[in-house]
Amino acid sequence: MTLLTRLTTTLSALALLALPLAAQTTGPGGEAATPSATITVDDAQAAELKGKGLKAALLWHDQSDFVNAVTAGASDEFARLGIEVVATTSAGFDSAKQLSDVETALALQPNIILSLPLDPVASAAAFDKANAAGVKLVFLSNLPAGYKHPDQYAAIVTDDLFQMGKQAADALAASMGGKGTVGWIFHDASYYVTNQRDNAFKATIEKDYPDMKIVAEAGISDPARAEEIANAMLLQNPDLGGIYVTWAGPAEGVLAALRAAGNTTTKVVTLDLSEPVALDMVKGGNVVALVADEAYELGRAMAATGARAWLGAENPPFIVAPAVTVTKDNLAAGWMQSLHRDAPASLTGN
Q1: CA 344, CA 46: separation in Å to the nearest integer?
Q2: CB 176 within 8 A of CB 208
Q3: CA pseudo-torsion sign 35, 37, 43, 48
């Protein structure tokens, strides 16, 4: 066994330790998950909110189709409740920019802020100012260091992480007839979102599919190395039946490796929607499924949580939106279910 093989095996074993004891999604502090569908603002509450002149700010980490869908879900819910969105920003994964965005937004005196904190420590400093101003904070996936519920934030809202990994395993198994060898490319970082998704895939294969065996494991922290990692995996396992890739960005590198090798048989499953990866699937390539979250529903639930917090209603600390498996057969419907918009014309021919 080479040093690289020993290292990746050790890393994957350590990552597996993060798997929840129960087959369900848990928060960064072990919080139980509450389905987003249960987080609602009823007609009486909506009537109480309207006419109050309430304002909200959406301070995002980056700009993408996913963020656009979350924004749409939040904006539609705020509009229903008579809450004006006074700022929508993108920090471009820059913590300093996020601090500036918070300070700029506070000048507009929002009552509610929705955001994904980029860095636990730096984000705490940024959002402390919002807390001091009495703003209700709802976070997407991440949490500033040391923040306590419900005093400092209304809730974390994120994906049903375990279900995303499980559905990816089920989709790959279906494409492989429930048997064969599998490669597992997981996120080599301590981040509860990707760790739970990755580990749920592995646990599902090991528990539910006895005729499938994970024979190759590799951690990835830099998506640019995906092609290199896949080449090494395929060199050692040329007859690999399927590969799981932690998210769609690195999956593009894995597809490049497969194409370079002339490999048309190894099945690929990954997480999150991506037009280039979905195009491979539509054209009958290696990709058999993409598992995504309902991003529009994430936004709706975040807005509802913020509004409920302003009313003084109790919110659970950790809220999750459903997962959806998108295949060639349900691409148009799955895209709409996740992002609340039509799939790109390149995928549908429209």
Answers
A1: 35
A2: no
A3: positive
Tell me the domains of the chain and their CATH numbers: 3-20+161-293 (3.40.50.2300), 34-153+295-321 (3.40.50.2300)
Q: DSSP of 103-163, one letter per residue?
A: HHHHTT--SEEEE--SSHHHHHHHHHHHHHTT-EEEEES---TT--TTTT-SEEEEE-HHH
For 315-332, how does the pLDDT look when each residue is reduced to its tens digit (9 = 90+)?
999 999 999 999 999 999
Cβ–Cβ under 8 Å, residues 301 and 74: no
Question: 253-311, pLDDT tens digit by residue?
Answer: 999 999 999 999 999 999 999 999 999 999 999 999 999 999 999 999 999 999 999 99
CB 292, CB 272: distance < 8 Å = yes
- Counted residue by residue, the chain has a size of 350
Beta strands in the chain (DSSP E): 34-35, 55-60, 84-90, 112-115, 136-140, 155-159, 180-187, 212-220, 242-245, 267-271, 287-293, 318-321, 323-326
Map residue 177 onto helix, strand or coil. Answer: coil
3-state class (DSSP) for residue 293 = strand
CA–CA dist 27, 85 (Å, integer): 28
Contact 75, 46 (CB under 8 A): no
CA-CA-CA-CA torsion sign (188, 190, 194, 200): positive
